[in-house]
Each structure stands twice: as structure tokens, then as C-alpha cells.
Amino acid sequence: MSRKISFPENFWWGAAMSGPQMEGTFEKAHENVMDYWYRTSKEEFFNEIGPNTATDFYHHYKEDIKMMKSIGMNSFRTSIQWSRLIKDFETGEADEKAVEFYRDMIEECKKNDIILVLNLHHFDMPIELFQKYGGWVSKHVVDLFVKFAETAFRLFGDQVKYWTTFNEPMVIPEAGYLCGFHYPKYVNKGKEAMQVIYNLNLASAKTIEIFHKICKGKIGSILNLTPTYPRSNSKEDLEASRIVDAFYNRSFLDPAVNGVFPEEVIQILKENDVLWEQTEEELQIIKENTVDFLGVNYYHPKRVMIRETPLDCDVWTPEQYYEEYDMPGKRVNPYRGWEIYPKAIYDIAKNVQENYGNIPWFISENGMGVEGEEQYINAEGKIEDDYRIEFYEEHLELLAKAMEEGSNCFGYHAWTGIDCWSWNNAYKNRYGFIALDLETQKRTVKKSGEWLKKITDQHGFFV
Ligand code: BG6
């Protein structure tokens, strides 16, 4: 007997994407760090493909929005690029061409009755601000970001109800200052990474403050939560897991929702003399300006244990407290190397419900990148991505269970609508409901796109 996995009629179904990964660099006022990184080191990108054309959303947004609507999406997220919208970073003056583009794109969403979530930062620091001021380590850059946000709110705040300040802010310090795989590709810059964590939280709170002064909508933040599971129940492994959770999840989750940083993080930073520069006035701003809702990007969990292999590093980094271990028997997406563990989505929901006041939240990204999807093209030219449908259903089933138990989740956005570019993969791994032919820019709905239409029509699916 089959059973229905049901979702509310007003549930958000959709997908996320981002300006720097979709638009292409056409007519842009400035370069962001990814544009610059690609221009100066093409060989570091898969098949040397960069963001210059990307999915050319800049020219295709009308057909793309229609197409996304046709596969059942009632909502979607993209980001406004700081380096596109702003002509003069110091004053926040807007670029006219960019205003026209974003205004038309917003209008198109309205025409198609799609709820638009506009995000303000998707790892896309303008390169000029990085070179001039050091990027997110600088508090002047925090204030310039708030100016950019204010310009966006004044221009589009009456048209767009849902906004978010940052996408996955933790990736900026983690990947850019600790692990070296995102621009500026620093490794083990622990102290700078901590200042970046603080400054991003401050920027988010200051942006929320100004939003609530001039707009009537709702504003949130998109956090990548990676539930952390210890190798064993030993005191040491549990402690390692607690520290990892505090640094990588709660450093943003706690201030975003509760207005305060985790005590254990502050304590460790003080003990190691690497506490960020903060003022009482700034902490008060963080305390008073928390999010209206939360977006959670979930891809994979972290499996951790106490550090047993000495770390070859003479500066402070959170890695000295733990190491990740290869859990035997785990399921992995071989193309991305990420563990597939749907149960974590339930654990996230419970955590938000029990420890964060059951704040309204949605899954703002979840997805599976696969290489070589051409091999699954059928006689009608459609990619039969059953693996992706299975991935989504497994996660949705556990999300539905948490909602039955009272979780305040209002939507599910996949990554992503149309195949798009990424600095890690360029176009190697594809994630979309809609396939993109890079030569012709032709878009073709995949089987998962048809699946989405069906489940949105019937508000769920049968297992
Ligand atoms: C998320 C990001 O972390 O993962 C996206 O918000 C990104 O920008 C997505 O593209 C998938 O990761 P990747 O590295 O496989 O493209």
C-alpha cells in the first residue's frame, strides 16, 4: 500500500540560484572576486570555463522564469550582485543598466506569479574592495555592504517582499581563510577567519536594521548547516563534535536567530588570544537585529572525532580540536564526494524547533550534482535523472516527518533550477531541474523537472 507524503497547499516549491553563477558578466559595472579569479587564473577552473557567459540569465531571464514556473515552481531565489548594482561603492550610487535589469527581472517574476527571494551576497565580494581594504576583514567594507543593501532596498524594497542578507556566510571564512579552496584561497588564517565571521554577522545585523526601517517585507539569512555527528560517545569525540558545531554552525545560527555568539566559541578565542575586534555598540546591534526567517542549505553532514594526527600548522585554527573521519558504510555522491544522509534534514528541523524558538524556516538549498548527465538522455532528448528524484524524495520524506511533529518549515528550494556555473565545478557537475546546453544555450526540462510539477500539483508524492 502506498502512503502519501503531504505538504501544505501554500508550501514554497522552487529552487535557488545566484547572480554570479547565472547571469554572466555582460554589461557589469565591476568585477567580483570570481570574475577576477577566473580572468587571472583560467587554468584553475574545470575545462577553463568561467562565469563570463554562465547560464546567460542576463539575456534569458524571461524564458527562464516562465520555464521555471512551468515545472511547478511557485518561488525562487537569486541574488543581486553588489558588483553589478553599484556604480560607486563608497556612496552606494546605483548603475542605471543594472537597475533596469533587476527591475525587469522582478517584474517578470510578478507576471508569472512567482515569489522571489532576493539575496544580497553569494560569495561575490567586489574585487576592488578586496584589494583596497582586504574584503570582509574590514569594518569599512561592512559599512559599504550596508550602503549597497540600502540602495537595493530603496530601489526594489516595495516590489520584493522576501530578502536575505547572505548565502552561506560560513563558507567565506572556512573556504577562503582556512581551507584555501575559495578566493582569496588563504590557508589556516585562523585569526582573520574569526574576524570575518564577526564582520559578516555585524553586516547582516546592520542590514536587517536598515531593512526594517525602510521596508515592510521580511528579511532572513541563508545558512549552510552541517549537522555534526561524533565518531563515538567518548567524552573526547563528543567534545570535538560540540566544538565543530559551535564554530561551523552556531557561529552564524546563534547570532542570526538569538542575537548572541556561542559562549564556547568566545571562550576558545579568548584562551587563544584570537578574539575578533568587537565593540559593545556593535554587539548591541547584533542582539537587536535578528532574522525574521531562516533559510537552511543542507547538503551533507560532518563526521568528526578528536584530533589524533598532529596538525602541521603553527598558527591557531579550529581544526586543532578535531578531524573529520571516514565513516564506514556511508553513502556518497561520487561526483562531489559529499555524504548523502537525508536523516540530517530531520535533525536540522528538530534543532531549529527545539533550540531556536521554532522560527519560520525553509530549505533554501538541497541537491545533487552529477557529472556526465548526457549518458541518461532518452530517445526524446530528455535526461532521466531518477537518482536526483530519489535524492529529493528521501530528503522530503524526512522533512515532512519533522513538519508533522511541529517544525515550522514553509518551503523547499532545490539547488538548482537551471544548470549553472560554479567556481568548484564550472559545469562539470550539473544540479538543475532544467538542463543547459553550453554550446547552444538551449534549455531542456529533465525528468526531475516533470517530477517537481507533479508533486507541486498534488502537494506531495506517494512512497
Ligand atoms: C552551495 C552554494 O554551497 O552549493 C552554491 O550556495 C553552490 O553556490 C552549491 O553552487 C553546489 O556546490 P558546488 O560546489 O558543487 O557547485
From TrEMBL:
Pfam families named in the record: Glyco_hydro_1
Any one GO molecular-function label of the UniProt entry: hydrolase activity
SUPFAM superfamilies: (Trans)glycosidases
Family, similarity comment: Belongs to the glycosyl hydrolase 1 family.
Source domain of life: Bacteria
InterPro entries for the chain: GH (IPR017853), Glyco_hydro_1 (IPR001360)
Glycoprotein as UniProt keyword: no
Transmembrane segments: none
Name of the protein: Glycoside hydrolase family 1 protein
UniProt signal peptide: none
Keywords from the UniProt entry: Hydrolase
Keyword Phosphoprotein: no
